[in-house]
Amino acid sequence: MAVGESVQLAPRDPEPDADYAWRVRSAPVASSLELVDDEAVVQFDPDAAGTYVLELDAPDGTHTLTIRVFPGSYLPAGSVRSGASGMSGMSGYSGQSGSARPTQVSGGASGSGSGAGEAQRGEGGRPRIRLDATVEDDVVVVRADPQPNPNSETDRDDLVVEFVVDDRDEVDETAVETDGWELRVPLSAIGDRLRVHAAAIDETYSVPDTVAVERDALTDGGVAEAEPDATGHTDGSGSEAASVSRPNDPPKWAQEVTLYEIYVRGYASDDDEADNTFEALEKRLDYLESLGVDCLWLTPVLQNDHAPHGYNIVDFYSIAEDLGTREDYEQFVEAAHDHGMKVLFDLVLNHSARDHPFFEDAYKNPDSDYYDWYEWQDNGEPGTYFDWEFIANFDHRNLDVRRYLLDAVDMWADVVDGFRCDMAWAVPDTFWQEIRDRVKAKDPEFLLLDETIPYIADFHEGMFDMHFDTTLYFTLRQVGRGDEPAERILDAIDQRSEVGFPDHAAFMLYLENHDETRYIVECGESEAMAAAGALFTLPGVPMVYGGQEIGQRGRRDALAWKHARDDIRDHYERLIEVRDETPALRYDGSFRRIDYEADSDRVVAFVRDHDEGSYLCALNFGDDPVTVDVGDLAVDATDIVSNESIAAEGGVRVDDVAICPLA
């Protein structure tokens, strides 16, 4: 983080009735910072650059937290760190009961220094970084791959890398060596686990990345010998084994899926024979399997204030009675698994409904045990956003609130495959970091998807695996309405790296959801067919909102199954199939711009590359076919969507979407 930012610090896995106290053990010479030492949750507002060492007295002992703070001039442009959302910097290990220890900055600067060297906030943007690790001759070798921002004039060789060893892990500090973009530590110098974080530094600093090394333990507590680990990483002689992982990579299964959002109170409401909503949804699984989707996001299923969307929750531990029972819900999840589908739970942690019994007890009653559970305005009304009148914001500074929500997280994480995190921007990032560590400790393949508008690059460090691509969403709307040329879609993809997202970040691509008007209504049918093509050809994970694939026009209405458009459904089914069969169109496929010409600015073309083949992708948002000239690019004019030749004089002829192999 940088001077001028703020972060909320709290004990992990808290005991609400226990005593906690924070203090500053050491700080930069220029700092006069003090913490409220009798508060369990405090706000850390650094007043000088350098390294701060904080201590937290807790029931299980004293924990140390080391925070590296850059000068305010290093603050990324557009960064907002206020203790809740929009937080930037090395937030993955600030606010944890353990801490992170700076070791050494490449280029000769000290990781525990004062951040010497004031720089003006650069216009070039944030650099990016990726870490990888191997075990060679009983030595853990961590290598950084820093990249300058696409808009920066900085040469890659001039980037500085700062490594940070996570001090929740046992390691002999004297054995850690850094040399430029590389860190080395003998296996014999670490305990069961070593986590290394690093950031690239230019005029500002990158979103940090992390690698983890686990020594393979024997049942008697020893260390396995002479056997490679599951990922094939061993030392050169095979004397000890260790597993290497990249915690910030999205789960492998989530990289390949097609997501499908179900608005639970409208999707199958035409089924009068089912005993409950979950049974009705279960009966639709064969249809969804035939469509080709792999992961289902259900809007909230918890007990609520009877608003049909379900986001105003009155009981975080119970399934809504109008939908069914917990047993019914779990049966639906099991049935989805039997159909090869994952299930996401819509997790709401910012607020409760005003009908929640805790809020009802607290409202206008400062003596209530639950009064401090909520944020309050000066007029006695609860804190909220956008004047929403039926919710009340939780106060996450209260340990009872954290305990209550963490217990709910634990309950539902045992049932589902991931969380879609509602209003992620409104919840303290250190709370998300704790949640991530909790769910990943049980299931490393558990997915965390954040709803943050606009997206925030720092949310990919220690918080979320996948992000709503809000920039692409708005761009597709502008293009569909004719307000922008189709080429702006390419700018939307480029913006990910320009704002600092690392290349390994995953994005959910969408045209609509339960909060938005249907794309086909706002933009038109031809535009909707092309936009569907964008979801399945651009880098990211496509999401289809239930009914989108049949031409549904109402946002939250009961689905008009009897009036389903077979032509639109066939279009989606084929696009899903093509993406599933074409590695270049998925997570591992790269994206590049090309030179092309067309008579309409409603057309855009680009290439997706992969070792197994490269493909020209072209989208036409206009009503009439357009010929796209790609110059000297060698293209097989067989469109793999239609399985027909689209060769035309001067190029290829595109109706809505075309995908052609490069020759």
From TrEMBL:
Question: Which is an annotated GO molecular function term of this record?
Answer: hydrolase activity, acting on glycosyl bonds
A Gene Ontology biological process noted in the UniProt record is:
carbohydrate metabolic process
Q: Where is the composition biased (Low complexity)?
A: 82-99
**Highest taxon above the source species:** Archaea
Ranges of Basic and acidic residues compositional bias?
120-133
Q: Which Pfam families match?
A: Alpha-amylase
Composition skew (Polar residues), residue ranges? 234-246
User: Which residue ranges does the record annotate as region Disordered?
Assistant: 82-157, 224-250
The record's annotation in InterPro entries points to: GH, GH13_alpha-amylase, GH13_cat_dom
User: What NCBIfam families does this protein map onto?
Assistant: Alpha-amyl_MalA_Halo (NF041321)
Q: What is this protein called?
A: Alpha-amylase
Q: What lineage is on file?
A: Archaea, Methanobacteriati, Methanobacteriota, Stenosarchaea group, Halobacteria
